[in-house]
């Protein structure tokens, strides 16, 4: 029985290399680089110093002894010690694990009795998470692909239908077709994103399948090792039981042989041999009392036969014990670390693979969103018709109508079927009216002056990009003229305009107004229809003036003070600290801020009509009044980071809420 168990163990051990193939479980290096030599009873392994660092497993000597053993059993070493796996490595030998592998984790797993089921359950959890991520990617890919194809089909169909219909031409058709191409571009980006998601889903599913296969193989191998070891222990227990029975029979025969001197035998018996007087009495009753009528020759032959059985049982038990001891040492010092390492590498593979694909998904998701944003709002807005908003703002209805009118008159002018314009006087026709060309040509020069930039003289008193204190001292004014001029026009024509200050003007018109104000502010009439028709152009110019100040209105030096005050949660204390920072502003900045806050206070009072609350105004003007430092700036001022944006808005919101307390004196309030 012992030979069968040990041969089964050796066959399992020899087959273990093929049971965990290199392509089944991912090893980062060949097994010979991190495993101890095979064969725990070899001289190389026995010379390694062992440090028991874990509770020793149950040895065969722990089994209860039913009767005293003979001298054959006394010579059998019964101590089997479980040695520390990682401590069996010599200092100058090969490493059990790779440097990148966590030795402490492997050591802790080897010390645990539940190391194998722990890792198996952990791999199960990783597989569930990996498969859920794979399913999510697949479903998300289906949604993105359906959205992309539907959008692509819609854009192409709309473009083709419009080209076949009798729609508006000119700048409108150019903007419309360009916008459809933008939609096609976004649809293509979504389709590519869906393909990437499908690839990631398939990779995760393949990873989960491979790791699950490795897990099952390693679990089956570990179960085989445990079964063989358990069979060896059972075989050892049976051999020990046979040895005990044979020993008891030998002792009974010896008692029968020496039956006359029972009392003397009882005196000479060692307490540990028979165990107790009760055992001695039973042996006498079974052996010595049957001496009467027995043939001494039969007793001698029986004694020799029993001694032979005891010797065979002792040899069988010794061999079973040695085989079990070798199996235990090889299992705990070689096979168990190898199995735990393979399972831990499966855990790492599934965890790292899932994390990598989730990170990749986040990157792709961010990229597709940024791509859509850069398509709708290009990074370089100066490019003509680059963004969707710029395309639609570039529609010139007046020019389109003028072109349409000319083409229509040319095509249908000779086919007019209406009443005649001219005819003889006797038929009741009046003399022809003066032509419109003369008045139109007379009015043409002022129009060119109004729309052109070449006829505006430069007075050499620029206001954009000039320090606030310098331009106020140069013009000898208490407030910047551009601020008063724009605010008066905005309050007059745009205080009830929906989304005032939030909606931007047309880039071309804003640039034109900026150039005129910078060259000769007094010649610009903001009350003309040219600017009152779209008051957003004026608001955009005013915001642009604030942004182009060399130093922001609230100054770099006081920026951190405003931010620190805005971080205070107590409303009253935050109001007081912000009031103190406002009072610390230079005179020119304080006067400008006071006037402009009064203007915004009036805008907020019409919130029901313009939808611009104090909070919305603070969001619009927070970054504008606090300013920003460019990446290449070498200024010693504190950098204005994006992290301060919420506190900038909160500071401006608090100042607007307490405008009267901060800026309006009691005398001014009464007047």
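Sequence proposed for the structure above (671 residues):
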């Amino acid at each position: 029985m012992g030979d069968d168990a040990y041969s089964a163990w050796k066959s399992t051990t020899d087959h273990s290399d093929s049971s965990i193939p290199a392509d089944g479980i991912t090893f980062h290096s060949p097994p010979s680089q991190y495993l101890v030599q095979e064969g725990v009873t070899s001289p190389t392994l026995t010379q390694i110093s062992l440090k028991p660092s874990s509770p020793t497993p149950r040895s065969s000597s722990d089994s209860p002894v039913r009767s005293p053993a003979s001298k054959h059993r006394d010579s059998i070493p019964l101590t089997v010690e479980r040695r520390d796996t990682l401590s069996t490595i010599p200092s100058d030998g090969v490493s059990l694990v790779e440097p990148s592998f966590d030795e402490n984790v492997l050591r802790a797993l080897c010390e645990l009795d539940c190391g194998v089921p722990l890792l198996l359950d952990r791999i199960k959890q990783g597989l569930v998470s990996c498969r859920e991520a794979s399913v999510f990617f697949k479903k998300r890919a289906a949604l993105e692909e359906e959205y992309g194809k539907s959008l692509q089909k819609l854009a192409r169909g709309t473009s083709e239908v419009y080209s076949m219909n009798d729609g508006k031409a000119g700048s409108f058709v150019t903007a419309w077709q360009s916008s459809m191409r933008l939609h096609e571009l976004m649809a293509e980006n979504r389709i590519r994103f869906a393909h990437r998601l499908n690839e990631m889903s398939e990779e995760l599913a393949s990873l989960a399948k491979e790791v699950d296969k490795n897990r099952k193989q390693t679990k089956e191998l570990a179960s085989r090792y445990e079964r063989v070891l358990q069979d060896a222990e059972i075989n050892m227990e049976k051999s020990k039981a046979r040895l005990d029975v044979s020993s008891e029979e030998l002792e009974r025969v010896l008692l029968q042989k020496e039956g006359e001197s029972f009392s003397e035998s009882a005196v000479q018996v060692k307490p540990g041999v028979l165990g107790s007087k009760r055992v001695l009495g039973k042996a006498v009753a079974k052996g010595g009392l049957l001496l009467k009528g027995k043939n001494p020759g039969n007793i001698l032959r029986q004694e020799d036969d029993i001694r032979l059985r005891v010797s065979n049982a002792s040899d069988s038990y010794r061999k079973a014990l040695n085989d079990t001891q070798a199996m235990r040492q090889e299992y705990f010092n070689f096979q168990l670390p190898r199995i735990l390492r393979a399972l831990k590498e499966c855990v790492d593979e599934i965890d790292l693979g899932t994390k990598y694909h989730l990170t990749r998904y986040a990157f792709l998701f961010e990229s597709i969103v940024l791509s859509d944003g850069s398509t709708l709002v290009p990074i370089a807005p100066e490019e003509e018709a680059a963004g969707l908003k710029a395309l639609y703002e570039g529609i010139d209805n007046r020019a389109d109508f003028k072109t349409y009118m000319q083409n229509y008159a040319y095509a249908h002018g000779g086919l007019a079927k209406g009443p005649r314009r001219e005819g003889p006087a006797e038929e009741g026709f009046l003399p022809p009216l003066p032509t419109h060309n003369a008045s139109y040509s007379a009015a043409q020069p002022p129009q060119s002056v109004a729309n052109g930039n070449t006829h505006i003289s430069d007075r050499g008193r620029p206001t954009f990009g000039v320090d606030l204190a310098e331009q106020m001292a140069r013009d000898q004014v208490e407030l910047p003229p551009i601020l008063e001029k724009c605010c008066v026009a905005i309050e007059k024509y745009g205080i009830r305009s929906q989304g005032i200050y939030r909606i931007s003007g047309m880039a071309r018109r804003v640039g034109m107004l900026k150039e005129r104000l910078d060259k000769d502010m007094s010649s610009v009439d903001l009350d003309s229809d040219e600017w009152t028709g779209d008051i957003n152009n004026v608001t955009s110019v005013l915001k642009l003036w604030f942004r182009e100040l060399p130093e922001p209105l609230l100054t770099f030096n006081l920026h951190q003070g405003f931010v620190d005050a805005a971080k205070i949660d107590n409303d009253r204390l935050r109001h007081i600290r912000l009031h103190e920072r406002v009072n610390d502003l230079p005179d020119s900045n304080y006067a400008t801020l006071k006037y402009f806050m009064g203007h915004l206070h009036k805008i907020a009072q019409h919130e029901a009509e313009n939808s611009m609350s104090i909070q919305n105004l603070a969001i619009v003007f927070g970054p504008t009044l606090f300013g920003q430092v460019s990446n290449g700036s070498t200024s010693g001022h504190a950098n204005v980071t994006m992290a301060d944006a919420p506190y900038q808005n909160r500071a401006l919101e608090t100042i607007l809420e307490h405008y009267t307390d901060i800026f309006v004196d009691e005398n001014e309030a009464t007047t």
